[in-house]
Amino acid sequence: MLSPPRSDAKAIKVCTLEGKQVYGGELLVKPVVMGDEMTLLEIHYAAGVGTPLHAHAHESIVYVVSGKLKGTMEGKVFIMGPGDVCRHPKGVLHGVEALEDSVIMECKSPAPDISAFMASR
Predict the structure, then answer these.
(1) Which tens digit of pLDDT belongs to each residue from 33-85?
(2) What is the DSSP letter of 57?
(3) Domain that holds residue 51
(4) What gap in Å lies between CA 107 and CA 32, rounded to an integer?
(5) What is the CATH number of the domain that holds 47?
(6) Label partner for 64 (CA 20 to 30 A): which of 36, 47, 72, 85?
């Protein structure tokens, strides 16, 4: 079934993630498509904004649309730019910091309770 476009969806300011304070500012998170088994989010990071090391009960796949990010996963640091993709497995510690203004698309599966995620704003 085709989902209606979410161009009208509002970005929500998020300042905590998995109970941990986002540093350097806040994230702007826009739910693009929400399905039964997965959710697609558009996330905006201003330069210097980052998420502390955290893990969650779902898998995430991240696609970098624009900007430059420093990612940390399982103690390894990597730099991602436009077109790069990474996967955060369920339960694995990871964090991200924007080295410049950045936009990512993040698919989460199984679909987490977005209302709880957004309650952190």
Answers:
(1) 888 899 999 999 999 999 999 998 999 999 999 999 999 998 899 999 999 99
(2) S
(3) 12-118
(4) 10
(5) 2.60.120.10
(6) 36
Cα distance between residue 8 and residue 102, in whole Å: 21
Total domain count for the chain? 1
The answer to whether residue 87 sits within a structural domain is yes
DSSP string of 59-111?
A: EEEEEEEES-EEEEETTEEEEE-TT-EEEE-TT--EEEEESSSEEEEEEEESP
CA dist 10 and 21 (Å) reads 22
Per-residue model confidence (pLDDT) at position 121: 46
Torsion of the alpha carbons at 67, 73, 77 and 81, rounded to the nearest 10: -20
Q: Would you say residue 1 lies in a domain?
A: no
